[in-house]
Amino acid sequence: MEISIELKINGRIHQLHAAANRTLLEVLRETVGLTGTKKGCGTGECGACTVLLDGVPVNSCLVLALDARGKEITTIEGLAVNGVLHPLQKAFAEHGATQCGFCTPGMILSGKALLDRNPKPTEMEVRQVLSGNLCRCTGYLKPVEAILAVSRSERDTLSTAKEASNLER
Amino acid sequence: MSDNFKVVGKPLAKVDALPQTTGEAKYAADFMPGNGLFGRVLRSPLPHGKILNIDTRRAERLTGVKGVITGRDTLGVTRYGDEMPIAVERVRYVGEGVAAVAATSEDIAEEALDLIEVEYEPLPAVFDPEQALLPDAPQIHEEWPGNVGLHFKWDFGDVDKAFAASHHIRDDRFSCEGVSHGMLEPHTILAQYDSSSDRLTVWAAAQAPYVLRSNLAMSMGLPETHVRVIKPHLGGGFGGKGEIFAHDLSAALLSKKTGLPVLFVITREEVFGATRQRHPMIHYLKTGVDKQGRITARYCKIIADGGAYLSMGKVALHNAGQFLILPYHLPNYRYDGFRAYTNNSVSGALRGFGGPQSFFAQESQLDMIAADLGMDPAEIRLRNAVKKGYVTCNQQRVTTCAFSESIEKAVQMTGWKTKRADAGQGRGIGIGCNAFYSGAAFVPRKLPTVDLEIQADGAIILRTGASDLGQGSNTIIAQVAAEALGVHLEDITVALLDTDVCPFDIGSFSSRVSMFVGNAARLAGAEAKRIILEALAEKFEVSPAELSISDRRVEITGCPERGMSFKEAIQTGFASDRFPIAARGAWNSGCIHPNWETGIGQVTPAYSFGSQIAEVEVDQGTGQVRVLSFTAVHDCGTPINPLAIEGQVHGSIAGGMGQALTERLVRDRGSMLTSSFLTYSMPTSLDMPMEINSETLGEPDPAGPFGAKESGESLQCSTAPAIANAIYHAVGVRITDLPITPEKILAALEKKNAQAREK
Question: Which of B16, B186, B677 sits opposite A45 (nearest CB)?
């Protein structure tokens, strides 16, 4: 039976009709047409379908679309703002952190959630959050490097800004 | 050497990297249209049985089901070697496809599978390859008595005489279990049949799009040109997406039957149990050496578990024999390679393709010999290492070779000598080496081809049939073409792979694309340059020899003021009716298809060589192994893209670590027990060593595009033996069967300690 669901995806409200047993992954891909979220297993083991719910990474294959009502859903398509890429997106490309790219959206979202709550993670903390995102191509080192590079450059930007404001004072 | 290059040798980002980070990169499943149907394959629950009857009527009546097919609906050719994409009379493994449905939702398709009634007559089954070769074993194929699918018997030199004269001989058994590809994107195909033109279009996760085209055409009874394969972004292959499977043909048949697009994305369970795996192999390896540790003779009997069908078994068994011949001097060699049919799922191609098993055996045994002789493992390798110009006992010529240098470099990078001296404290260091084809001449019929098209605004389009699986081959091919033409990588757009418009390539396997398609790209770039320079020479009234294109500039010798940008030259130098400028490059490797029976043939234009060193820590209380660091030194000739090579090194080490320590496909009477990522344990970010150091070295190879050699599968061949050898160094136990699980280490430690107490 189809029911109507209101979802807030990447800042936009979507009025949708979907069966009650549809997962968030299925609704994102098949109903909304946001195919950047990938299905690697459908059983919550690979992390390719990672999206953010109120900033927290979840396997969207394990979340019913119904249960995502009232939450801010962020998918990989929602990361770039007005065509300006998120620093993690640029860093993944430049550091060779993507190979086949199938795990990439999930990894970037896991990385974003981490940096949002902890802008200065250690390498082990980065590895910890990526441990739910399986990858067969990269051996993880370059994705870790990309996330750390963003963390460093944002720290640099912050500290430069701080120094500048100190000077002004 | 690479200082002269403008594009080759640079660590450039992949041409398709950015769309992969934004979600814009489209994979086959992402092309599903709104009216598309969802397909599912019904699979055999039996390891061996006769199909007596299939009744699909109840499934057909289910609301939402639009079509049901069985193997009897196959059109045209139904068999590939010994295998039918959809079984007709007999099933030989659990998971073999017997019927398929297309429905308006995945749930309905799933439900419909339960409504198909298949009547089977169970037949006796066999799961162990050695048992399968015994006289009273159940027979799996009538055409192959004794379940001997393949038997290669090679003999070079005088093995018996050399063994008799050997100072020391070791005779050991090694084994490797089945391993899965573990690519993140499951096998996917979207098929749309158009009845008015009798044409089939598929969007497929295909490692070899032209092979899929040919196989689909045969099975659909269509001319090849009536099948169009579009290969969009592909989520990893590793050898697993190069053949036609039940879901491929089902998608095509069901689209024809229903008139609608049909999508098959197989489940993760199906990927593990119903596609392909790395050949499990048993090596009985006997090697003789002289007093100095130089190898005098080798005999190897391999028993490979082929599973139910042939697949790419010939190549795997050939390679397993071939990779015992290099990278060391071996004057006398005898090989008995058997591939047994069993009722397990089918063994096929997987990164390294016969190499990892044989390198595990020979590299482990070389360390055992070194220990017997009291030699350093690096030293015994240096004493046996082949050099440039070496011709193997089966007449393979080694063109360029920096193998010894790779050992020396790895030793120097790791502080090997100091660390080796410090043995047995739970920490250890071990070495493993490799040699690999820069592409193999298994399919000599047609040449790899690259097309370049230059349009009136100066835009350059590159078309290739080579499938980028994520490893970045589109980038490598475009870098080579850019270098040859004299432009930058970003000046070239690599077209979407579409067999209607992209020229032939046989596919991405045997680490061939850089060498084979790279050379085609080099020739295409050079041809485009020739055409452009001729036209410009006419226009500017100079001779073509006075013109040059480099670094996206056109220069006229002696007239720097008349130089201009490449785009400007194209826009001003050509009359509008001369566009598009088209150039084609096709490359003939001159290699010889191997003779399976004798093992002779120059299989590859060039061998790559490499050495890897692992440092591990073994917890003697739990048997847990932690890989602390990894060093890889690789002779890949000219490195076309160091960033991509590092990516290959890291990924290979991750895959090799998995095979060394945790990954194994476990079955119970043919039913896959490890059919999820939870039960099949691939390395995660937390398992990877904190440090991976990699270096490339070696001279440009004369055959390679700008001197490049392979940089793919070799890297995974020596990872597991380096780890096994490091474990031995750490705790003094030698595990000869992969994976090296904590249980095996604990059992071996217990045995070792008991023996020590007895003394």
Answer: B677
